Amino acid sequence: MRHFICLIGLAGLVACGSSGDRGIEPSGETWRASEALDALRTASCPGGVSFERAPEIDLTVTPLDMSGLKTGEHLFGRTTVVGGWELTSDDARFGGLSGLAVYPSGNLLAVGDQGSFIWITIEDNAPTQAHLSPMLNDTGAEIADKSRADAEGVTLVDGLALVSFEREHRIEAFDLEGCGAAARAALALDLPGHPLGIPEPMRANGGAEAIAYSARQDTTFVGIETTSAQGQPLMRVDSAGTITRQVNLDAPREFALTGLDAPSYYPYALFRHYTPEDGNRNIIAYVDGTATPRYGLFDKVRLDPSVPVDNFEGIAVQDLGDGVRRVWIVSDDNFSDSQRTLLMAFDLT
Description:
There is one protein chain. The chain is mostly beta strands. The chain contains three helices and 23 strands. The radius of gyration is 19 Å and the shape is globular. It starts with a strand and ends with a strand.
């Protein structure tokens, strides 16, 4: 089954979707996060462990020139640029932001791929400060081993953070609402190296790159970087304790799925492609399982050289009401002097 992806390109935002909101219907028995919350909270925030607030770190916020980004009417509505910012810090642990989630307050939660949580405060529609703490394992010690600390995606389920990891593929839960920076990793799912429904095993650095939770379906989706000729696999967590291919996303083969969020029935997906010649190219996709394919739209996704871009890996979608959704994206600088941590926000009406 190949599903249509409606595209928002960073050079001329384009999107489309059906008028319905049925989205992708789960098949078979899905893992219900709502039924696992109590046990995961108890394991992550056990008795005797008190709430700890993550310490604030230095954060420099530099506005980006977004004037080269073409916006306006598209098939999904109207796009408005909220802003773009480069984020830097004197704290050497800041960087590698690979997953993003948004709280109902509008503040952001990011995960760094060296094993850290980063809370970003949003005031007047812009980032103002950050707090950072290392992720803790099930004993309360820092997750220091890179093979265990490679966090790639995060989604919030009623105050509980579900984090997807690759290299040692798994999903861990952290009760950030109950214990904050003192929350311990509670294993939600140990992912098999070869999930159901995909022809190839996951590469060490090609695993659970993205995770999203749809409250309206009580379903957790996982996006993996390991692709095949059938397309980009969008997985769902099932009750048998594994992830199973839900659909194949019909994305351009050179693009890798790097981020997911599911504010309703349907996920928003973030894709990235990089070559030394072309640099970074990115697609924000609205995945609609009910629409008619229009593959020619892929040919229109090109980056305008005047638009600040980088290695975007995290996406979070915030419902502002009155038919407006705010899309946040963040880039992973790979702790490299040649890359940047960029945060951008767009409103879709």
